[in-house]
Amino acid sequence: MTADLSQIAADRGIKYFLISYVDLFGHLRAKLVPAAAIGQMQRNGAGFAGFATHLDMTPAHPDTLAVPDPASLIQLPWKREVGWLAADLWCDGAPVPDAPRNVLKKQIAEAKKLGLQMKTGVECEFFLLTRDGKSLADGADEYPKPCYDQMALMRQFDLIEAICDGMLELGWRPYQNDHEDANGQFEMNWEYDDVLVSADRHVFFKYMTKTLAEQAGWRATFMPKPFNDLTGNGCHMHVSLWKDGVNVFDDPAGELGMSAMSYQFLGGVMHSAADLCAIFNPTVNSFKRINASITASGATWSPNTITYTGNNRTHMVRIPEAGRFEFRLMDGATNPYLAPAALLMAGLDGIKNQIDPGCPADFDLYEADEETLCNIKSTPGSLEEVLQALEMDHAFLLEGGVFTKDLIDTWIDYKRTNEIAPVNL
Fold first, then answer.
1. Residue 155: pLDDT band by 50, 70, 90 thresholds?
2. Counting Cβ atoms within 10 Å, is residue 115 exposed (0-12), middle (13-18) or buried (19+)?
């Protein structure tokens, strides 16, 4: 039975609701609705002019209706009279096929036909900057090898505490917060969950972090590479696949504690890695992160080779422990819904076609000789190259009508027109 948002508002003291959705290119859109009107919105949706956001529509389209999902409700920890709701988009009596949350839900349904559920955890890195975005918020954060710097972490304690307390209040089970590899860079971790739950939380985490940073007088950015000389913002994704409550990636007898099915899943992702870059690394700036040089810590934190390994951070895919993969390509610009949808599609394609990922690369990639590197495939080196790869090979994304041809064409055209062309001028 669907929860009654009007009753929830009365019970919890919610006066307003943000009915929210993420557009194709990751921008968060919303309407603020008084609790007195939420019943109507729950039935019919909040109306938007979809063409005015990054959706593949024109002014001739009917209203886009954002129908809130009561299961996604989050009461803002810093403003409890407001409830945030992720919404599913409808237009002309049907779900909008290219709306990112709808895309992920379609792919979840495809996996469910096989009895499978994907669970994910994301590591969202961000910088704290001055309001104008021109310099780091903490002028004293200057140590040349700053990863896990306790002094720099604790100088931002009030903000980190506010964000972490918010996650604790919401029941996300956060478990650690740290200063990352770049000056001014941080990461906060919470427990993995169902892929849709994690995607909604990913969206809300970015909103909460930006809002609380503003209140503290700073600007938070998840931009892939804000500074040429500092490590970029990744969004590593930890993935496992479940059936009937059992992790089917976990096999104590398998290599590195992983099952045969998990390696087929990995094979699908490795096979389509170049195409997936178009979703995982969706901006020109993304490739400044991927192709960056090694930092003072001794790593790039963004491997650009299509390789996997055990607990070794120099490769694209890491197996940190039995039962899960860490996919390290994604960056802070990735769409929280499209990225896991594409990853799950590629993985299921690997299982369906029993794709072999090959042998693990059990060596330090940074120490590899030239002959070894010549035999390793690399990810494309620019946004244009990944768009060309996606143009040539995207059949797996069209399986089950999850991604549509229109979505892929719109994605490629928009990126070329609005991101690549201006840079090339």
1. very high
2. exposed
